[in-house]
What we know:
single chain, alpha+beta, Alpha-Beta Plaits, Dna Ligase, domain 1, 5-stranded mixed sheet, 4-stranded antiparallel sheet, 44% helix, globular
Amino acid sequence: MVSAGQTSASRPQWADESWDSTVLHIDMDAFFLSVELLDQPELAGKPAVVGGKSGRSVVTSASYEARRYGIRSAMPMSQAVALYPRLIVIEPSREKYTRASQQVMSVLHEITPWVEQLSIDEAFIDVAGARRRLGTPAQIAALIKDRVRAATALPSTVGVAANKSVAKIASDHSKPDGIGVVPAEQTRQYLAPLPVNVIWGVGPKLVQRLNNANIHTVGDLAMQDTRRMQRWLGAVGPHIVGLARGDDLRIVEPHHDTKSVSVEHTFEQDITNAHELEKYLLDLSYECSRRMRHDGFVAWGLSVKVKDVDLSTRTKSMSLQTAASSGAVFFNHTKPLVEELMRNRWHPVRLLGVRADRVAEPVEQQETQESLFDVDETPTQTHANQDWYSTDQILDDVAKKFPSAAIKPARLLQHERQQRMSDG
């Protein structure tokens, strides 16, 4: 990465003031909704959100028209509809978002190998090595937007700065469909008038503490003594002062290892029946394992999460003696975890989640699947474990060819039939 202190004399004659701002933050605008609007263009310009239609679902993505009513991502759907009763709610389509994300990331990798994907719809890239070939960082940002739109028909926003923190702030303040450029030598000048909550790590509670100390802007924060801030706030004090001064030494890391894969479900009505809870756990275990296999990972640990009716959250984790990616194995290990949580404190369950921890690429598929149940390795047991793996492969193959096919564990299908009968 080119230093922010590089002299203008070392720049090419055609380089503009963005030459030293080599870190770009690319963020897709209202990504999930924008993808849905490609298939439903008649909804463009209307207050709309993506999310489940049940009252306990949350907003995944909101149009800018919906945001004018105070509707935001992660807001409970019931609250969003209360803010605007005529809100258009679109059910999410995971496969469409994955396909669009892959197209976006492919465009970025054409620009530079220095791509750090943060989520399905945003990434950092370092274009220091691409400037001679493609132009200044500001020109590369415009090129990225054009190529992303050509590949996906989707709008994006790009922040251009000398480091990650400022690039993210610049993109946030340039939405929608914009480019925000912060020349390296103007970093502190750009940050100074902004509210202190733009700094990473400064949440509502910390904002209140800072405001009570008459620290309202990033410029106010930048002037604080780091030792005094450490005594007051601990390790976070010097850290946020450094960010306020435009100091961020983190580099763009192309190989960002996935640490976990999780799925969860918020119930329309609180679950009070242990048998019913077990059926949902079975479904989540198979879904979590399917996502693991889709991404080419195995797990060395498993966790479960239960949110009670009083909104308190409880979790329990375990380590696996042998890595696994089978839905049956996930369920057999998570079931005792949930049972223990419920024995210790039985409450109606509002949310249930399953997470695969310490995920990694399998060293050898045969080796990772030989001891799925952590029992003595008899020939019969080994053969059964291999059968589980073969069954998962069949399920995955069928799902690829027939996405709507309802091939699931028999007891889960029976549970769904019972639910439909009771609902009908």
